[in-house]
Design goal:
- The complex is a heterodimer of chains A (273) and B (367).
- Helices cover 65% and strands 0% of the residues of chain A.
- By secondary structure, chain A is mainly alpha-helical.
- Chain A is flat.
- Chain B is mostly helical and 367 residues long.
- Chain B has a single domain, classed as Cytochrome Bc1 Complex, Chain C (Up-down Bundle).
- Chain B contains 14 helices and 2 strands; from the N terminus they run ααβαααααααβααααα.
- In chain B, helix 3 packs across helix 10, helix 5 packs antiparallel against helix 6 and helix 11 packs across helix 14.
- The chains are: A mainly alpha (273), B mainly alpha (367).
- At the A-B interface, helix 1 and helix 13 of A face helix 4, helix 6, helix 7, helix 8 and helix 10 of B.
Chain lengths: 273, 367
Amino acid sequence: MNHERRMMKTLIRIGPLLLVMLMTGPGAASNVLAQEEIVCIHCHSSMPGRLGEPVKLWRDSIHAANGIACNDCHGGDPKDVANAMSPARGFLGAPKETAIPDFCGRCHVGVKKDYLQSAHGKALGKGGPTCVTCHSNHLVLKANLDIINEKNCSKCHGFEQARIIREAMQQTESLIVSIGERIDRFKGEGVDTDRLGKGLFSSRNRFHTMFHDLDVEKVKQESTQINVDLNKLAGTLDKIADQRNKRKLAGVWVVGGALLAALICYLLRKTYD
Amino acid sequence: MNILKSVYNWCEVRLGIKELVEKELTGYLLPRNINFWYSMGSIILFIFVMQVLTGILLLVYYIPEADKAFGSVVGIMNRVPFGWLIRMCHVIGSNMMVLFVLFHMLSVLFMGSYKSPRELNWLTGFVLFTLVQALCLTGYLLPWSQLSFWATTVATNSVGAIPHIGQFLVEFLRGGKLVGPPTLGRFYTLHIAVIPILLASVIGAHIFFLERIGVSTPPFGLDNTKNRWQGDAFRYEGHPGGIPFFPNYLLRDMTSIAIYFALLAAVVFFYPNLFFTKDTFIQANPFQTPAHIKPEWYFLANYQTLKLFPNEFIGLSIQGAAMTFLALLPFIDRGNEKHPLKRPLFLASASGGILLFIALMVWGHYS
């Protein structure tokens, strides 16, 4: 009760101020909350050479875009400068080459499995590529077909087989990209794209599992099947687009009707004047 | 037909409908030189009615709980038949309401209609303007989107700049230290009950004052553009030989309302996302601050003003002083002249003020 009385008294005292606040436009302010900065970035970004380079590379990576920071992979305490790199706080540092698939596979569980089953994974520790050979380490790129290129593949072997696989996957990749863009556009217009997004996510994941498969026939078959699912999604998107076009057509009638009503009122008034 | 006539006669002997129509409609005369800007009030009233109706329809499906609000709005936009149309009319209508209230205020300013004896009309109009802004602000949070959440965080933060009691006020507005479910409960109550009731009451008072004192004569097309009010006694400003409200002026109002409706429909059907950003369609996430949160267009000038000053309290005080000056203008500007071209100081200050407002708005948008 005392608390309520105190609150009421304070409110009475500050009433006029509240009114001024209301008048001055309550939506206005400048101090947008800054995102919490982690200490790894704070120190390493000002370091020269190989110690500062990872931060610059990471900033343009898919990890940075998705909010995955240094400590998410390397461990440690991102809030304590003194103990940021303490093993007691879970700091792992950089993994050895053979440990890289396990290092990345803590999050990318399915991809690790696909990789280990592939010819690439079987050559781990025997000169075969690891995750970072194709995906880079700090400038981690979004998994897409561009990663399968002559420059990357020719580091270890000829590009011919990779080229056939890439061509087989090209149509699916284009479909995924275009459907993704359409979903994003509709989402930005208030369309409930949750189900469509999940459908695309599932197809994209299935597609990505093939990235580590080197069996050309299997890749072709699987791509065809994924394309069928993607075309269903494209059909649903076409229906949404169609519905929105119909809305615009209805809009023509409504706007036209309102303008006609305005004209009739105007002419009627003229007759009375 | 006879039944209708009997019903009319029954009402007539009890209510005096004929006399009422004569007094308030056909016999209610308006100045002959009345112009388009006099329809702004009717348009605003029409918008208010539409906002109430669409708001009530939205209430049928909206769930005012932090974990369900966003989903319920998505449902309204995608699954409820014509839900998108109702919500779009409500959202775009709110922006239109602010725009037309500004137009109304500007026309009153430039035609000198705020001058004596219409101080109360101006004051109630000014209160309506702030209530409309408050209505928009509280409604902004309800969809519980990223934009709603962070814009409200930013807006309520600004109150914290007031010395000594700032933090108390922030917590009072939010119902806690941060924007959260209690804030939604507070803003919801304000938006659907407290502010609309206040708004309807002040609209009533505004119309009552207009009805009592009469419609002001526009200063255009007249030789004598001076304010004729003596100040010695109450006098209704009649307009003998003027235009009857019904049917002549009502048809003018209807023309303006139909044009407004065409404008609203054009935005709703062809540019529905004019007032939306991408963050509008992402559920609120207290742990992820969007990159560029900006207030709605009508708060951009205030937002930019605050950014110009190193101390937020100074920015708030300057805005408060400017708004207080505007609210008390009829008591400050006591001159008799109503024509804007015969009031050079007023014309220069008002035009400068409008240009400054627009410049700050554009600057705020691109900053």
